[in-house]
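The freezer alarm interrupted the setup, so I double-checked each line after restarting. Inputs confirmed:
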Amino acid sequence: MTINLNINTGSNTPIYKQITDQVRMAVASGRLAVDDQLPSIRALAERLVINPNTVARAYADLAREGLIESRAGRGVFVTRKRKMFTREEGWRRLEPLMDAVIGEAMVLDFTPQELREAIEKKLGQWKPQKGGSRNDE
Amino acid sequence: MNEQSVIQTRGLTRYFGAKPAVHDLNLEVPRGSVFAFLGRNGSGKTTTIRMLLGLLEPTRGQGSILGYDIRTLPPEARARIGYLTEEHQLYGWMSVKECGGFQSQFYPRWNEKIFRGVIGHFSLKPAARVKDLSRGERAGLCLGLTLAPEPELLILDDPAMGLDPVAHRSLIESMIYLTRRSDRTIFFSSHQLADVERVADYVAILDRSVLRVCCSLETFRNSVQQVRLRFPGVPPPVQNIPGLLQAFRAEGELRLTCVHYGAATEQALRALAPAQMEMVPLSLEDAFISYLGERGEKSFILSETEAQP
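Predicted 3D structure, all chains:
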């Protein structure tokens, strides 16, 4: 499968982060599977009309997370994620994000029940990656 | 002299009468970078570029370009620099093709393939007369004439000015194409922050003749942060916040934009005892405007080397 990456200028999110977010999301939702190929740095930079260093920066971040890898002479591929963080560290990273969502939902007058249902619905749209859960290795 | 810098200035200053156009400029442009030179109209960008190219004598200070002193640039240095400006010399009676032929005589390294590639990219017909070209087409021709000698250093003074969206996109694509050669440097002035976001590695910002920012684009974005503080009642007055650029006050809320955001700023903000405190991401344009807008303090210099703790 391939991925249709897009970027917006003028966003609050820097371009390199727009790319990493989209690739992460595509992997998490199953639109990109292990061994799927990503465009080369040069090709993606020319298609998105952005500086190749920006793409390189995004790919470097994704590679550091173990999400993609560069295979010599063949290109850039989605890889099986190595377990990067302990469960504890994972929670430490996730918790502030959850607090932000819950806080915002409360300010916007959503009920806990509505929030629960919305999260359930979102989770339903994501399917596990082929080869089983990414963190069970 | 840093070998990796293609442009370097120390205390470069130019006065017009008693009025400073550029004051005490310390600029460093790394080889192989795409460097955006920003600032409001009249902030001194064009004056700087003209001094760098030896077209205007500095009042004081030094500068070098490709290792040569800007006061005594030899012709062989000029041949390695491509300069694209509004007032590019074109003869109306020449055809596009003849312009290329004419220009090529002055450059031993003229690359006809690049010239044809660029004018093709802008959909220019080689037989078209210069006087019949639209503004965007003229820009394409000028860009072709500037790129064909394969300059090591390309200096573009507001290249996007007056271009329609299609010509504009072609310009940006040409700039990105140029980065294929990692030893080529592009130094461009612009008001188009979307372009800066797409192509620039580094930014420098001039504000009323003074350089305020000279660092990587990422450093700039990370250094300018907006924080939203929520309070149960009326927010307290804001005093002595290190790096404060702008403050917006709303009911139960303060939005502060700060530069050099770090431990000192955070401590000062926590001392205001907000009920909630969160970082709000800023677009490049918002960061730029906070930096150059009329409110807030103006005494901050942001550079890689002089970064504050």
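Quick read of the result. The interface with chain B takes residues 9-15, 42, 45-46, 49-53, 57, 100, 103 of chain A (CB under 8 Å).
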